[in-house]
Amino acid sequence: MAAIMDTTSGEKVELLWQAAHHLPDFRLPELEALACMFGADIEVREQISNSPFLIVAFPSEEIATRMAQRSVLCKRLVALTGRTKQGGSLEELVINAEVETKRRLGMSSRKGYRTFKIKCDSFGRDKSSKAQQLEMISTIGVHFDVNWKVKLKQPDIYYSFIEDYGLDRATNRHIHETPRYFFGERLSKGARRNGEHLPWAFQLSKRPYIGTTSMDPIVSFLMANLACVSNISYVWDPFIGTGSIAVSCAYFGGRVVGTDIDPRVIRGKKGKSVITNFQYYGLTGQLDCLLAHDVAQPIFTRQEGIFDAIVCDPPYGIRAGAKKIGRKRKLRGDPENFSGSYYSAKEQYPVATLLADLMTTAARLLRLGGRLVFFVPANDCFENDHIVMHPCLKLLSTCHQRYRENFRRVLFTCEKVCQFNPSIHANFQPNMKYSYDE
Fold first, then answer.
1. Residue 377 half-sphere exposure, CB side, CA atoms within 13 Å?
2. Running DSSP on this structure, what letter comes out for residue 282?
């Protein structure tokens, strides 16, 4: 168990935030969203593009630990006692770490801690050999006096010794021949490595009801974090599909309303449906309702400011192209007199029009400070300003996820910053430069 140090003096504490190497565009937006969620004033003081290590100043170690435990991309949070610049030596690290390591060990001793473990990790290239690791641990271990005992399983405190060589994503090779070193006490692991093992416990391969466009659990949990979903959030997914995003929001405590234009998706098949997924994870109580609903013809017309977050992945492309209710030809007969099930005819729904309708609906239905999080397909010609924001919404971040050479998707996170005025904002028709309709 990590020893959380008291920082009641009001000064910020610098900690090492190690993020996962993949999805680099999501690192800072997730960190900033978590800071907003926990009411923390943070400052990123050091960030290198080819490295997942960030030096971040937090109000306290306790708040930083809570943020790390909620984070999807955080691998570990470390209270640094020593570090070197690129190309620094191990001897330099030992000297730099002496004072702070002994201070933290003294405070840990007063809490009754007596056992420790030091683990070596490397980024950018393979770990050093076991013999070299033992040599490095022995060198840095001079700061632990005879009162401290090594315990490899469940020690009282856990120290991390990290070598960072950097990594070139294009070639997948390390950048530097000599590393920079980090040494310090690990305060926490991220949600992916804590007891919940997020998001691995939510793998699509184990889920009872999935489809061809079911969202990857890592990304769906990231979307829930960017939307600041908590146990007091009321969340709407207007394109719920098989419920991947809704399940992630429900896991974090949000009460979910799910809608989809296709009632067959809501109903499910072979005895399995969206509700089956919620039952599988024990989250049935978090699902408020499921409705067949067309975003182009919103049904929540009498309410305003009822949702804390709207989180969705609008349909696009060939397999799941966007549709809205409509028909080219006039319907013969009255649908009420039809025998059996009747499904409304649908027509193409251009993505730019869908996004304009989605933002207008979000501007009406979100509370002040509420968040809209949605994906947009893009190619290499795409620029963030191709998507025109609704006047009630402020763009907070864009995160790019590349699929192949000429295709990616961009996650937009927006916040409602002013009240919706029907006479001004109801007919939002932006002149978007964006066009993506396959």
1. 19
2. T
Helix, strand or coil, per DSSP, at residue 23: coil
Pairwise pLDDT comparison (350 vs 154), residue with the higher score: 154
C-alpha to C-alpha distances, 78 to 335, 340, 424, nearest whole angstrom: 63, 62, 50
Q: How far apart are CA 146 and CA 139, in angstroms?
A: 15
Question: Side chain identity at 57, as an amino acid letter?
Answer: A
The torsion angles phi and psi of 385, rounded to 5 degrees, stand at -75, 0
Is the Cβ–Cβ distance between 204 and 281 less than 8 Å?
A: no
Would you say 316 and 351 are in contact if contact means Cβ atoms under 8 Å apart? yes
Quote the pTM value.
Answer: 0.89
| Through-space distance between the first and last CA atoms of the chain, rounded to whole angstroms | 53
What does DSSP say about strands 234-237 and 167-168: parallel, antiparallel, or unpaired? unpaired
CA dihedral 365, 372, 256, 343 (to 10 degrees): 80
Considering only residues 49 and 26, tell me which one the structure prediction assigns the higher pLDDT.
26
Tokens of 32: 């900033």
How large a percentage of the chain has pLDDT more than 70?
A: 87
Distance CA(108)–CA(79), nearest Å, equals 13
**Considering only CA atoms, which of 73, 283, 290, 61 is closest in space to residue 192?**
73
Tokens of 3: 């020893």
When the pLDDT of each residue in the chain is averaged and rounded to a whole number, the result is 87
User: In a 10 Å sphere around its CB, with 0-12 CB exposed, 13-18 middle and 19+ buried, how is residue 203 labelled?
Assistant: exposed
pLDDT at 425 (0 to 100): 82
Q: Going by DSSP bridges, is the β-strand pair 307-312/234-237 parallel, antiparallel, or unpaired?
A: parallel
CB neighbours of 255 closer than 8 A, spacing ≥ 6?
233, 234, 235, 286, 287, 288
Q: How far apart are CA 238 and CA 313, in angstroms?
A: 9
- 379, amino acid identity: N
Question: Measuring CA to CA, which residue among 375, 379, 352, 363 is closest to residue 415?
Answer: 363
Average pLDDT of the segment spanning 171-182? 90
Question: Which amino acid type is present at position 146?
Answer: V
pLDDT digits (tens, 9 = 90+) for 115-171: 999 999 999 988 878 888 888 888 888 888 868 999 999 999 999 999 999 998 888
